[in-house]
Write a structure and sequence with these properties.
Strand content: over 45%
Radius of gyration: 13 Å
């Protein structure tokens, strides 16, 4: 995730409507999530990622995935 002008202020990841802790690497602009089978068992799931820049603009990415 990147913002070319003001920069990223905050982000929130959710899986199946529950908060999910993502790690952000500022050098590569990558988010990483390490799956815990007790919390997110293998199968189909819904991912929602909300990102807010320093000007208050908000982008939401949603997708379904399986693992």
């Amino acid at each position: 995730m990147t913002d070319n002008l003001s920069g990223i202020s905050s982000f929130r990841g959710e899986i199946n409507g529950q908060y999910a802790l993502f790690e952000y690497d500022g050098k590569t602009n990558m988010l990483t999530y390490y799956f815990d089978e007790e919390r997110v068992p293998p199968g189909y799931h819904h991912l929602k990622l909300t990102v807010i820049d320093r000007c208050g603009n908000k982008s939401v990415f949603e997708n379904k995935f399986s693992w």
